[in-house]
């Protein structure tokens, strides 16, 4: 029961295990993942779980490969989120999500949810879900906008 509570986000602040988070984020074997914004404060357990699930190393920001997903570590003060999202879209497949990972409320570098909500449509994206993905981080999924889909 406690795993279900953790997976659904119920049951207080108990974080999901990294493998559960990666499954919820939809990562799969052989996917290429672009990682942007890596700094020493990033969640190494989550990064490792993504690499284990995909079986691939992260693609770096200077690469020119088409990727299946983007992990964007973003903190208050990192710059212009719209610009970073547009850059991330350059090599992302049409179906691929951008996961914006931001410090939780009360943590250094916390980003207001409204900042992501405001930036996403400007970059041609829609926000679909947001959930805690570790002790210090929140994951927000952004996808390409599709016509009038709600």
What can you see in these coordinates?
With 150 residues, the chain is of the alpha/beta class. Helices cover 30% and strands 21% of the residues. The protein has five helices and five strands; from the N terminus they run H-H-E-H-E-H-E-H-E-E. It has a five-stranded mixed sheet, covered by helices on one side. It starts with a helix and ends in a 6-residue tail after the last strand.
Assembly of the depicted chains: single chain
Helix fraction bin: 25-40%
What best-fitting shape do the alpha-carbon axes yield? globular
- Structure summary, number of beta strands: 5
Q: Order of strands side by side in the largest beta sheet?
A: 1-2-3-5-4
The largest β sheet comes out as:
5 strands, mixed
Could you say which structural class the secondary elements and strand pairing correspond to? alpha/beta
**Low-confidence segments:** 1-15
Beta-strand percentage? 15-25%
């Amino acid at each position: 029961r406690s795993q279900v509570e953790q997976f659904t986000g119920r049951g207080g602040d108990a974080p999901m295990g990294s493998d559960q988070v990666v499954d919820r984020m939809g990562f799969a074997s052989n996917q290429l993942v672009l990682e942007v914004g890596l700094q020493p404060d990033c969640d190494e357990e989550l990064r490792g779980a993504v690499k284990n699930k995909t079986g691939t190393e992260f693609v770096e920001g200077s690469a020119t490969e088409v990727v299946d997903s983007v992990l964007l570590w973003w903190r208050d003060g990192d710059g212009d989120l719209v610009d970073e999202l547009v850059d991330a879209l350059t090599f992302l497949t049409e179906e691929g999500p951008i996961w914006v990972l931001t410090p939780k409320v009360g943590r250094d570098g916390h980003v207001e949810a409204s900042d992501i909500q405001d930036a996403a449509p400007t970059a041609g994206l829609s926000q679909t879900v947001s959930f805690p993905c570790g002790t210090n981080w929140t994951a927000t999924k952004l996808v390409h906008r599709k016509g009038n889909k709600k």
